[in-house]
Amino acid sequence: MTLEPERQPDIPEEAHEARVRDASEVGASTAAVHAGEPRCRAHDAITTPIVQSATYTFANTAELIDYHEGRIAREEYGRYGNPTARTVEARLAALEGGPDRETAALLCASGMNAVTTVLLAMLPAGSHLVVTDDSYRRTRQFVRTLLARLGVQHTVVPACDYAAIEAAIRPETRLIVSESPTNPYLRVLDLPRLVSIARQRRVKTMIDATFATPYNIQPLKYGVDLVIHSATKYLGGHNDLLAGAIIGRPGIVGALRESQGMLGGICDPHSAYLLLRGLKTFALRMERHNSNGLTVARFLREHPRITRVHYPALPDHPDHAVAMEQMRGWGGVVSFELDGDLEATSRFIDRLRLPYIAPSLGGTESLVEQPALMSFYELTTEERLAVGIRNNLVRLACGIEDAEDLITDLAQALND
Ligand SMILES: Cc1ncc(COP(=O)(O)O)c(C=O)c1O
What we know:
This protein is α/β, with parallel strands linked by helices.
């Protein structure tokens, strides 16, 4: 895609040329540092400014009319766009690299807001969506509760069960929603297969690729219609902001931007700036998350106290072949099961010294959680089992620490 930088009013026209005009011609790290930013920025600063403004002024009525008539591109009001956020959007679109160099991105207040914006805007009353299981709990909860109240029906199907996905499609189905990799079992969808099923039935596809990031997979290249990210995770990368992103063709993203103007879930300029800052080291961080995840997964697989490791790069993972073919790396999240009960698993977690006990993933610090006592705490053991969550399951989100230190820590905590 061509990276059109945001016009800055106080610098000469020639300085608007982007340092990286086409992200497909450079590596991920170069795109992560330069894409979407003009060569020169306001006040000669090397950083994109935080434009902390709720509204934007017009010099006179003629300018206002030029704006309405599309003769000039500029901001109008903070809910419809912000220069700092637009720079991040250009960078995310470049990193996601869709087909035909025609990709646009929309920043949102959070990952959940990205999900709900798409679902509310694309699913009218009486329509139906197919959603895969083993996906973010709140997405399924939204579909089951608020969306159902608006007259949108849904069918939950097992992730990667393509026959079930196909069978669930009805004449009124508009959208197939899945994650890849999924949470917490890291199931990896065969995207060309999914897209082929959807296209035959004229249904659109939305993939929440938060766990993969555009460094590891670019779903738009396989024909997926919309990619969603919780930018709170790897894209921001420092556990210090909440943001979401929707990426796809300019037409559909433009329509979603219109919806955001009504729904109001914008990313504030400070978070947009933090995201832009985090993105500069995105590719570097992903390399380390990927290598830490793989090293830790291999260590755990050999440990006598671990009964099962869920990581796509391991040969016994059900989607190993697809993951090896379609992904560049498999991320920092490793899910695994201990040889003990709920309490023994909690003891192991409490003995860990490096990872913090916290929900989330994708930041510089390793985080660990026992899903039974984190997201699924209100459920009984039987109810948890019904949704596939065992009491001895651990989800470790490797940060960017040294792999040897993570392994030393895991080894001592397992030595109970
Ligand atoms: C896969 C996935 N999608 C969406 C979300 C929601 O993102 P946010 O917390 O930024 O709203 C999360 C959060 O954990 C997630 O893991």
